[in-house]
Amino acid sequence: MRFVGWILMAMPLMAGQKVLVIPVSDNGKYMVDQVQADWIVEALDRAEEQGYDQIILTIDTFGGVVFSAREITERLLRVDIPTIAYVETKAISAGTFIAFACDEIVMEEKTTLGDAQVIMQTAEGIEEAPEKIVTVFRSDWKKACDENGHSFALAQGFFDAAAEVLRVAGADDTFSFMLRDEWELLDEPDRPKILEIVSKSGQLLTLHSGEADALGIATEVADFNAFLEDRGLTEGDLHRLEMETNDKILRFLGANTWIFFLLTIIGLNGLYMEIKAPGFGIPGLTALICFAIVFGSKFMLGTASPIEIALFALGIAMALVEIFVLPGFGIFGIASILLVFGSLLMATLPDIGEIPIDSDLQWAWLKSSALVLSAAFATSIALFAILLPSFLKLGFVQRRLLATELTATAGYVMDTVADRTTLKGQTGVAEGDLRPAGKLRLDDDRLLDVVSDSGYIDDGTQLKVVAIDGNRVIVRPVQGA
To answer: Are 362 and 434 part of one and the same domain?
Structure first.
């Protein structure tokens, strides 16, 4: 588990109780995500270790990723400390799910609870999650309700639009909740009196604080101070948690797809330009920083692993082999593109315990991520084509490239062997080692490019031109020299 920072924002304990306050908030711009889930789970672990008497989750969220919310609820159900969900403004979707996992729900006046249907983003838009996902979610709700004494029939109104929830009469002016389907299965004499249709079929249940209080699933209070007073607590009893800066930054990176999109574009262009002008420079450093942020943040968010990082590095290595060792667009070039694309795509997918193509939800997530990544690749190629001419004019690039065009009109001509018959048989001295190619200084002081027909030859060896083969002047050591 990654290190999760937390700051205790509190005055010294003054009363007998030791209460930990954990915010479950989107701060107006975030949803329940993996960073928040890790942070809250770590806080719950420490609360048990440090002997807190009570835990209050202050909830103000529109919801978020169901898998992250599940991590929070699973840990809440196993905490050996009394937990209270205090709804500050709203507990929508995953916020309601988390609230039901607490021992008690308290709602401030004019706050909202509900609408917890599992949905997913597809190419066609927002859709209800398939039954394969919902059935797991339904089991989690049942477990939370059984553990904390909540009505599972009423809870189904929050996440199942097909459920029609009834409030029915019990003995001695009490009431309970039933689904319409369950009520109709009873023999007519055994059917309890219907007091109210709490949630109609085709609608999701959402309640304000007064309604939730009247139905007995939450307690309504005027404000947080009134709640503390009612429980015999003071501000001095509270230890308030706040995320550290590193967690806030990580949450910002994880919540904004456009950052991943932008960093991928910049990183890819840095790689293109570094390969175009070899030598580790500014483009290479820029690419390294961008992909370090991409994979580092995804690794800490739990969606990337060392496998994705290794595949990305292998893809870059194959690209270098294709360019410098085996020129031409072949198997190494294709493999490098697939590895780089695949590693980045895998790094964006959450680990939800199954093969990534095993459910409609995973398919939808895969398609959405692939679309974003494809757009990033296409944009980076377009930008590279636009920026390349300007890039090649930069000073540090010019120093790595042959800037002068060698044309005949500019006076540049190929040094050819003008008179082959006169060269054959001439002698001279090797100027530098021949490996087997090198230089020959003829006796008339001309300098020729030559090739030895007898392998390596030391500098200063007496040589003789023995043959002319096209533009190659072939030499061998003079016998007895």
So the answer is: no
